[in-house]
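Obj: model holo form, ligand = thiamine diphosphate.
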Amino acid sequence: MVVTESTVEAGLGGTHRLTTARAMVEAIEIEMRRDASVFYLGEDVGAYGGIFGSTTGLLDEFGPERVIDTPISETAFIGLAIGAAVEGMRPIAELMFADFMGVCLDQIYNHMAKIHYESGGHVKVPMVLTTAVGGGYSDGAQHSQCLWGTFAHLPGMKVVVPSTPADAKGLMASAIQDDNPVIYMFHKGVMGLAWMAKNSRAIDLVPEGLYTVPIGKAKVIRQGSDVSVVTIGLSVHHVLDVAENLAGNVDVEVIDLRSLVPLDREAILASVSKTGRLVVVDEDYLSFGLSGEVSATVTDVDPTMLKMPVKRVANPDTPVPYSRPLEYAILPRQDRIEAAIREVASA
Amino acid sequence: MVVTESTVEAGLGGTHRLTTARAMVEAIEIEMRRDASVFYLGEDVGAYGGIFGSTTGLLDEFGPERVIDTPISETAFIGLAIGAAVEGMRPIAELMFADFMGVCLDQIYNHMAKIHYESGGHVKVPMVLTTAVGGGYSDGAQHSQCLWGTFAHLPGMKVVVPSTPADAKGLMASAIQDDNPVIYMFHKGVMGLAWMAKNSRAIDLVPEGLYTVPIGKAKVIRQGSDVSVVTIGLSVHHVLDVAENLAGNVDVEVIDLRSLVPLDREAILASVSKTGRLVVVDEDYLSFGLSGEVSATVTDVDPTMLKMPVKRVANPDTPVPYSRPLEYAILPRQDRIEAAIREVASA
Amino acid sequence: MTTTAPDRQQVGLDDEARLGLYATMVLARRFEEAILAEYHADKGPGFDIGKGLVPGEMHLAAGQEPVAAGVCAHLRSDDAITATHRPHHFAIAHGVDLGRMAAEIFGRETGLGHGRGGHMHLFDPETHFSCSGIVTEGYPAALGQAFAFVRHGTDRIAVAVTGDGGANQGAFHESLNLAACWKLPVVFVIEDNDWAISVPRSASTAVSSNATRARAYDMPGVRVEDNDVEAVYLAASEAVARARAGDGPSLIEVHTLRLWGHFEGDAQGYRPELAEVVGHDPIPSYETKLRSDGILDDSRRDKIYQQAGERIEQAIAFAKSSPLPDPSTARSYIFA
Amino acid sequence: MTTTAPDRQQVGLDDEARLGLYATMVLARRFEEAILAEYHADKGPGFDIGKGLVPGEMHLAAGQEPVAAGVCAHLRSDDAITATHRPHHFAIAHGVDLGRMAAEIFGRETGLGHGRGGHMHLFDPETHFSCSGIVTEGYPAALGQAFAFVRHGTDRIAVAVTGDGGANQGAFHESLNLAACWKLPVVFVIEDNDWAISVPRSASTAVSSNATRARAYDMPGVRVEDNDVEAVYLAASEAVARARAGDGPSLIEVHTLRLWGHFEGDAQGYRPELAEVVGHDPIPSYETKLRSDGILDDSRRDKIYQQAGERIEQAIAFAKSSPLPDPSTARSYIFA
Ligand SMILES: Cc1ncc(C[n+]2csc(CCOP(=O)(O)OP(=O)(O)O)c2C)c(N)n1
Ligand SMILES: Cc1ncc(C[n+]2csc(CCOP(=O)(O)OP(=O)(O)O)c2C)c(N)n1
Ligand SMILES: [Mg+2]
Ligand SMILES: [Mg+2]
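Output (holo structure tokens):
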């Protein structure tokens, strides 16, 4: 039986249709109205409205004191956000592409993520680091990476990855309200941008007003009994496409993790214990990342759950190539996902 | 039956006893004599001889033109090494602690690791990046990390981690000769430093003269039939301690991976297919890293190999605490390793 | 220091050389106009960045040709350049093969990087040209190339390019300091086009001239205030000579002009001076100068345009007729 | 600019204040002497860095007290400091609780960070003090603290500290530029002790005075050539006043002295001037000055030493008698 859960969880009051980008901004707007200590800083977040629409309209409402363009000095302005958070503000800092983490990672993992621990809990760092991820539009090896495995490996920060407009709003609100540093990674392909290929679910119903989605809870986006597909980000939509396509043939359960840290291991285990078959779809690099961790989540508890080898559909440890046929070959697109599901379901 | 393989593989001619640090330096010396394009640069690698003895004596023989102290500008000098490698030299650049990767990671993963691919193979980057890893001596959260999972997740560079003097020499020689970028991570605790606790194997026989160890081949350090323990770095020695202790009781096979990239998946599979029981011991963070990848290596092929859940003995996603009892609690020390092996062997 | 009136004779700027500068700028502009047309030809309906024969981000350098032409006129093909996300004008001025560059931009197997790199990742070992999409992270590699050139006993030099926005990145500071400490033969170039995407220079940079920053490394620094190819040529002549002579690095900042958007698709709503921009195009103004100096006339101009047009046509044709890479080779070239 | 002859009256440097500077330096020195003794007491046989009641790396600041005392004399406890891997003198001069700091160094549950941090990771929200073991990566957080202070409508300021080696790290450049662009109330301090571990300043820094670098950010910069607490006090008085008045950041470099090794266990074989070092100890020389000015005599001196000694004894006793953390709590405080 095929049941596709509504993307919208319980909110207060009505709903409206928004793109993912717009839903993300709506959460920021609401929090900025509620809490004067929230501000947003980064490159091209003011007049430009964020290269991927992450701040469109914010400057008009909140002005340049709270929506702040920075120099191309990621170490300085992310560090600035950390210092402001330490003094009780709630900054949102944008790293334009996750691919640029290499110029500022020290601030992120040695400072933002560790200060609370090193201080024995005496200092809090309530901030959000937003960043765009993902490929599929020929942006090459330095502008197409997901890298969430890298962030998730380093302890002390939460890592969320919304795939739908409602989650984009709810996770952003939760991230801002959280007393811990939260990395909020938005895949360009789910944002519903006018100038990039969109999936059909990039505009969807979003609860109006205050709305939060708990960080660390995966979501069963589609229930099924034959194969569990665990995924995140844009891949959620590719998997749904395939699942709908295979309906009647293979009954696919789709789990959108929504968060890597904390990782909802219970959700993974509950599904695999039911289906006995696991496919992990991850646009990040294959090795030493999310897909291995999902497999290990099962073997940590009970390998006999698995009736078949796990299939990991991920970037095969390849710098993202520019040329379209090459990029499509390494991305976890529908063709590879379908082949993996069929193979796992085959015995 | 318990067989501990000799640490020394076939070399030309005789052997001598060296510390791991000294063995590493010996390989560098030999390559620098053979090849005028090899040079070493980093902080305190000249007169000081490397904070962890990685360059002791090199300045005397090769002078400040080839053993070069740098400013504390990791982005600049690692980038310099990349540029020199592109023009045909074979630089060895030292990042004093792997923990400092955050100030220079862009050069490492977006440049060093990707140039060969982006250039369609036209440009080679034959360089070695050496770096010290690991804790156990109360150096706190910013000076005790392993982080090899982070480097191994990012494609385009090899990642090696020697645990013995002979491997330190052989892997260094291979790394320098390799036409690809190689990250050479030495655990402080295996170096045999006069001023740090040593394990009994930090001084051992090393082949004289030219000696290489192939990159990407794990080593069965101890053969056994009951439990496979897959590990790397200093943990190899802790595992051996436990294995020897348990001998007669549990017959432990110990695999020293020696390299994360390439990962010797065949060696893992061969051992687990024999024992059906897997413990992974990893001083790096638990989640989204090496230990998960080792588990996934098995489930990718045949989860039914596993008669018991896998035990992962790793840093439980905790910034490394300063205070000794706390640090000992999160490190994969003998107590935790032994408990894990016993549990896995118990049924 | 502001340089506006170069002494042409002293630096070998004879008629031929001046026509050469002009021709280089024309070639770069015509190339980018061709790419512009190809890029937008098949992005519709609407504009989908991932569509078409040339997909992805496209950063064009129209208006900034004086910087590349003026600097590269002093270089040999065995000198190195590390350029930015906006690399074409430098690649062209330095002599990168047009066909293989175009093929790379079209993602073809015959491209400089067999289609792996794309327009922000052009690598040409023949001319020691490279670029990077990470702001200012191309600077450090130039140090290493320069280092190798010295070690190899040559007088070759390296040029490193960044933008006004990029001059506030940590790599800038580290690179200038290290190059100065080790007296490396590097010429650091800053293309100040007033904007870092939508952020004006005044909002990103605490100092009005980056030449001031050269002093923080005890290095000569010059700001060329006019977007004039001969002024750039003159400034570069000193810096290149100094590097070649083994006297160490220099910094040149040029106040140039971004004629078009940051990337294609950029509506530039943030840009108040947009209407005036076209009036400051450096190519017509140089043409006027050369004409009034009696060096350029209609026929010479036409010939330069025609030659440029032919080369570009050939390059684009080569690119378009070249095969796309075989998807089964996506994992080639990860390791050597 | 080199400042050697402060005008004491103008900046409120009366007798009491001068004795205060002296007392602060003595307190810092005595504290580090005590830590030194405790550190080495149980590292044997030989020297094992991981052994003893105080294990791990230990970076002591003996000789650099004038910098901390001179700067912090202008600060209130609601001002912030981000210090380095060599943090004790600044922590003490800023009023961090000695007992909780000592307890942290001894890895005790009563320490500033419940033993999680250690001597390179001291966090004291009460005095807004913090430090970091990553060179110069403490600079950016100071910007954020200063930013919050402004947003909260206060005249509080932040002080950021690094070393001569650290001034060549990218974070230095980015932080100074951003602070200047946004006119943040930050005082940037460079402790130039001539060495970055074994690398002499001359090998790491292309410029003889980092005050020059301040100009690269259109910011006042001063180098204090003498390791003299009053000269530091004077320079800091201007910089702090400027920051508090909302006029933006400044840079102060002090040519100071590392009396001991980079860390304990450092044999300093690389250091040619080692024998002379002890003769330049800034504390005896300040004592001589105060004595000759008639402000200090034996009894006052003894009292200062005695008070310092008592406080330190208490602090160390508190640390030693405090419990070690319970291993089962190792995972507490990862998330709030
Ligand atoms: C480290 C880093 N941060 C941000 C970006 C995104 N980005 C690409 S180009 C650009 C603006 C660069 O401005 P400038 O240096 O002035 O060069 P211009 O584009 O004007 O030629 C930005 C912010 C990047 N590529 N790398
Ligand atoms: C980014 C980074 N690189 C290297 C180190 C290792 N390290 C610690 S202190 C130090 C020397 C610092 O010199 P300086 O800034 O002059 O301060 P000093 O120790 O002299 O007080 C180095 C290289 C580090 N902690 N962080
Ligand atoms: Mg610009
Ligand atoms: Mg120093």
